[in-house]
Design a protein that fits this description.
The chain is of the alpha/beta class. Helices cover 36% and strands 23% of the residues. Bound molecules: P-hydroxybenzoic acid (PHB).
Length: 393
């Protein structure tokens, strides 16, 4: 565990806030993968979170004590670390979680303990659907939300048949389900789907060959982190691109690792809730500040960490300081951020946001993104969520 004080006591007189006292301290668990196939994602979310606290939290007059825990990419590890944060560190709220599998594993614990969780990545549809909780607020995306619009958009482009590939775990299955449902509803046909063993597949060649043999118009995939780098590089070497153009969930060609793919990513078309080339003043300021702080261009993972910090600060600005008051305040946050207008849907506690279709191309300083379409703000269907009211302890 690392204790880090990011926002120290500031002069309360400068703020329209309750006067800061020594008791204005909150303990926050930062629960991310710092090892394993999603380690770079965890580090990027942490960098965005630190920038968000520095940007919005410095004047707050509240001392934020961070308790940093590594989930790896393993549900049982994530559950053990969450238990430690809640029982031993007595945190007031938790921020983080990258893997849908880890989110599924900790859902009952945070819900039962009444600890607010700001989800800063994991798209698990159930956490804001049939397993929704007043304690879980997601500022990142849901797996269905990112992929449904792309299913409709690809059908509109005249693509009639698609083959799909994704890692075999909750996020892979839900991303493909979201895409395929919308694509078929819009008149398309899925010719075949494969799910590759998660964190274990070294050679994607046999799966790509199978997709090519299907005769589909296009291949649609979800991969992220180290698997996205291997997949895109192997796909380019395989040389199927002319017959079978590559589309995907935008994590495939994330700014975070697109330079490790380099020209292999050229021309790949994907969809996501954020790309660093979005043209609005909040994004320009964020990109400049993130580059100053880290020397690199921010990805969707960075903006998710940044917006998670901003949501936490907005909740603290209402005077919330403990689990119950923070939990209630987090569900009310809304602001214009780098990805556009952001609000939490009270029916599910999932973020509502536009989705961008983008093409990856070679730019001056490395690979970059051209936005092809901004699709309207997408709220999830309630997916079986009957949101309970917040219990009062
Ligand atoms: C997930 O497991 O929900 C997940 C992981 C990595 C991503 C997106 C979603 O880039």
């Amino acid at each position: 565990m690392k204790r880090a004080t990011l926002a120290t006591l500031a002069a309360a007189t400068t703020l329209a806030l309750p006067a800061a006292t020594a008791a204005d301290t909150v303990d926050i668990g930062l629960l991310l993968p710092f090892s394993g196939v999603y380690a770079s994602l965890g580090n990027e979310i942490e960098a965005g979170f630190a920038l968000g606290l520095a940007t919005y939290g410095n004047e707050l007059g509240v001392e934020i004590i961070l308790h940093r825990e590594d989930t790896e990419v393993t549900p049982a590890v994530g559950l053990a670390r969450t238990r430690k944060l809640i029982l031993q560190d007595d945190v007031d709220a938790i921020v983080g979680i990258v893997s849908s599998g880890v989110l599924g594993a900790v859902r009952d614990l945070v819900d039962g303990a009444g600890v607010p969780l700001i989800v800063a990545n994991a798209g698990n549809d159930e956490a804001t659907g049939e397993a929704c909780s007043p304690w879980i607020t997601r500022v990142s995306f849901s797996n269905g939300q990112v992929n449904r619009p792309m299913g409709r958009w690809m059908a509109e482009q005249g693509i009639e048949t698609v083959y799909t590939l994704a890692p075999d775990y909750a996020a892979g299955r839900q991303m493909i389900e979201g895409f395929a449902g919308a694509f078929t509803e819009a008149g398309g046909t899925i010719l075949g789907s494969d799910f590759t063993p998660f964190q274990q597949t070294q050679d994607f060649g046999p799966y790509i060959a199978q997709a090519q043999a299907s005769g589909a118009d296009a291949l649609f995939v979800f991969y992220a982190g180290g698997e996205a780098i291997s997949f895109v590089n192997q796909y380019a070497s395989f040389g199927a691109g002319d017959d079978l153009p590559l589309y995907g969930s935008g994590f495939l060609t994330s700014q975070l690792y697109v330079d490790a793919q380099g020209p292999s990513a050229e021309g790949v078309i994907t969809a996501l809730h954020y790309v660093p080339t979005i043209d609005n003043p909040e994004n320009a300021a964020f990109v400049a500040a993130f580059r100053d702080a880290t020397g690199r261009t921010p990805s969707e993972y960075a903006v998710q960490g940044y917006d998670a910090a901003r949501a936490l600060v907005e909740a603290l600005e209402t005077g919330a300081r403990d689990r119950e008051t923070l939990g209630a305040a987090l569900r009310q946050v809304s602001f214009d951020g780098p990805r556009g207008a952001l609000a939490i849907d009270p029916a599910t506690n999932n973020v509502v946001q536009p989705i961008y279709v983008y093409e990856t191309v070679t730019g001056e300083g490395g690979m970059t993104q051209i936005v092809l379409a901004q699709l309207p703000a997408e709220a999830d269907p309630v997916n079986g969520c009957a949101m309970p009211s917040m219990p009062t302890n």
